[in-house]
Write a structure and sequence with these properties.
Layout lengths: L2 H26 L5 H19 L4 H26 L6 H10 L3 H19 L1 H7 L7 H30 L19 H11 L20 H13 L2 H11 L3 H7 L13
Pfam family, one: DUF1295
Organism: Caballeronia choica
InterPro entries: UstE-like
């Protein structure tokens, strides 16, 4: 199937899924459930591309399995964090800001996620259509980056979850493990994940000029997390609720893990 046709099917599917989640949240009042569905559905898009593309079969298999594992792990983590709990503060603030137009604007916001997902899905689409297999070295590099990103993000999520589970840490700032070296190590490894597919598109027999499109997903993800819906919203809430967070911001790297600075 031509890549534009596969992308069109993926976009329609995402729009339908996100519209259904929007309709569901009208009753549940928990728009945060879009987060796990986003991860699950984007992993599904990779499997769709791997199934419909006519590129190198081994590369398609790597892309499909890699993205499916990523989406399943992240989606399951976000589902446990959101299902049955109060709506995430980010979405509550949007409801309050939009007022009477909240339902309409939330639908537009959800559909925007479909557009963003399509841009991110270039990481799966381009290598799925490469004519020939990548060299073994490129596959090894992609696998190493992918494994490090999945393991790192899972570790950061678990360390934060364990910290919050201890009642003695209520209102405190997590500096356990990776969180000592980065205020958002989970975001860092999420960005790294989108780099993992780049080696699968380059080299002889690769995607040619389209390989440049592989730079968009990691750059877009980093921009979204650092400037839009990630760090700004999370840190505004944390600074309001957690004692010592201002000092944590002064001494600890925002994204890339790095030894903390002296608080003075």
């Amino acid at each position: 199937m031509p890549p534009l046709a596969a992308a069109a099917i993926a976009f329609v599917a995402l729009a339908v899924v996100f519209t259904a989640i929007w309709a569901w949240q009208l009753r549940s009042r928990n728009a945060g459930m879009i987060d796990p569905v986003w991860a699950f559905s984007l992993g599904g898009v990779a499997v769709l591309y791997a199934s419909l593309a006519n590129g190198d079969p081994h590369t398609r298999l790597i892309v499909g399995i890699g993205a499916l594992v990523w989406g399943t792990r992240l989606g399951a983590h976000l589902w446990k964090r959101n299902a049955g709990h109060a709506e995430d503060a980010r979405y509550r603030k949007l409801r309050d800001k939009w007022g009477a137009a909240a339902n309409r604007n939330m639908l537009l916001f959800f559909l925007l996620q479909a557009v963003i997902s399509m841009l991110l899905s270039l990481a799966f689409l381009v290598p799925a259509y490469r004519p020939g297999p990548p060299a073994a070295g490129w596959v090894a590099l992609a696998t190493l980056i992918w494994a490090a990103s999945i393991a790192g993000e899972a570790l950061a999520d678990r360390q934060l979850r364990d910290f919050k589970a201890d009642p003695a840490n209520a209102g405190k700032v997590c500096r356990a493990g990776l969180w000592r070296y980065s205020r958002h190590p989970n975001y860092f490894f999420e960005c790294v994940h989108w780099v993992a597919y780049v080696p699968l598109a380059v080299g002889p027999g690769g995607a040619g000029a389209f390989a440049w499109a592989m730079l968009l997903p990691p750059v877009l993800m980093a921009w979204l997390l650092m400037r839009v819906s990630g760090v700004p919203m999370v840190e505004a809430e944390s600074a309001r609720k957690r004692t010592g967070y201002a000092d944590y911001m002064r001494t600890t790297s925002a994204l890339i893990p790095w030894p903390p600075r002296n608080s003075t």
